[in-house]
Design a protein that fits this description.
4 strands, 2 domains, single chain, 143 residues, alpha+beta, Glutaredoxin
């Protein structure tokens, strides 16, 4: 509105259009930055582990942590047969960070959850992983 009071009506709409396009471009840029900084939890398992209790326990524990941190979670499967189930934290384009490995031992969901929570608590103190800070409240609550 400020611009159109100083410009003729025909130029006011052109300037408003340019300003609107700049605002939209800036907001898209900010969304890309926020998405790349948000991170996500990834569960890597063999296709052969899909029906097992281990994958279910690891997935449920990881999903619980992801919900608490408001992060997406993804299960990635491979056609190769291997025993371990891995959980990684991935922040944007950075290399994924391993946060848990189940090497074939049956573990209940609570044990897996506590192991994930503890390592993510430590990782939350790194300045590049501030999105993980909410886990500190839960860990301190139970300490």
């Amino acid at each position: 509105m400020f611009i159109s009071t100083y410009l003729s009506p025909q130029y006011g709409s052109v300037v408003s259009s340019v300003v609107l396009k700049a605002v939209v471009a800036l907001s898209c840029f900010l969304v890309v930055i926020l998405e790349s900084c948000s991170g996500k939890l990834l569960v890597y398992a063999s296709n052969f582990a899909l029906n097992g209790n281990r994958l279910q326990s690891v997935s449920v524990a990881t999903e619980k942590i992801a919900k608490m941190l408001k992060l997406p979670m993804e299960v990635v499967t491979f056609g190769e047969e291997f025993t371990p189930i891995y959980v990684y934290y991935k922040n944007g384009d950075e290399e994924p960070i391993p946060v848990y490995c189940n090497k074939g031992v049956e573990a209940n969901m609570l044990e897996i959850y506590e192991a994930l929570r503890n390592i993510i608590f430590v990782l939350s103190f790194h300045p590049d992983h501030s999105v993980l800070k909410p886990i500190r409240n839960e860990v301190m609550l139970f300490s």
